[in-house]
Amino acid sequence: MFKENYSRREVLKLSGFAGLGLAVYPLLASFDFKEHILQRKIPLSNQLLPVVGLGTWQTFDVGHSADEMIKLVQVLTEMHKLGGSVIDSSPMYGSSEAVVGKLTRKANLQDDFFYATKVWIEGKEAGIRQMENSFRLMQRNQMDLMQIHNLVDWKVHVKTLRQWKEQGKIKYWGITHYTNAAHGKLEEIIKAEKPDFVQFNYSIISRNAEKSLFNTIEKYNTAVLINRPFETGRLFRATKGKDIPLWAKAYDIHSWGQFFLKFILSNTLVTCVIPGTSKVHHMIDNMMAGYGRMPDSKTREKMYDYIKLL
């Protein structure tokens, strides 16, 4: 977390960005260094989580590349400095779990993050072996959140996750998916099994979850992680070369990334959004969406209408 009274020059120096001012300085120029990142409660426990985290699909699947490891250590360090903690991974993401484990330890930050990963295999025993391997790769004795990835064999894995939570091996368990077509099934499972967390897709142009999924989440007090906030880059391609509307500055929005993330975060049922990145300046930009004023319901629709017309 930033101390109060850091100057922008100090932040550039501490972040190792003194020579990258052109890329980073515009991001920091609008930042109020006396603030703290917005946090929201996990309904089950009232534990607070910062509203912007980090997804690791593709971005952390770098094997043993020393050059990529250096960049990713910086990503994790800057995330931590700006108050972030949630890191989401999966066995599906190649070497990502191992890279997260190795680099958080290398940065001496291994106890400063909220670690989330998934089980993604059929069968009880296979699931147990896979999850135990995730503990080893991420170098954890306890996992903060274990999720059933894309609902694969969920009826079997729910039983294991409940037992592991009772035993203290995991703090929370959840379910995930990434398509609109799965939202109805997510609702059914929330009603029947009452998971601690649900992770799904939601963005300024993909609002299917607003039809009924969010209503179910509110009723059953489920914590929410949001994936695919940028529609795998589609939103940036649509806005390339276009200016952010001037009225967005009133909500401390100074980039398209912040525009898209603040739309999501202005829905107060969202606990944390987890954009993926391997670039330090993108990490800083994403984290800044957790600071400053959030759009109200009227402004949310204004943001949506503006993007719809581009």
UniProtKB/TrEMBL annotation:
List, alphabetically, the Gene3D superfamilies matched: NADP-dependent oxidoreductase domain (3.20.20.100)
Give the InterPro entries listed for this entry.
Answer: AKR2_Oxidoreductase, NAD(P)_OxRdtase_dom_sf, NADP_OxRdtase_dom
According to the entry, every stretch annotated as the NADP-dependent oxidoreductase domain falls at: 52-290
Question: Organism's domain of life?
Answer: Bacteria
PANTHER family, per the entry: D-THREO-ALDOSE 1-DEHYDROGENASE (PTHR43312), NADP-DEPENDENT OXIDOREDUCTASE DOMAIN-CONTAINING PROTEIN (PTHR43312:SF1)
- Tell me what this protein is called: Aldo/keto reductase
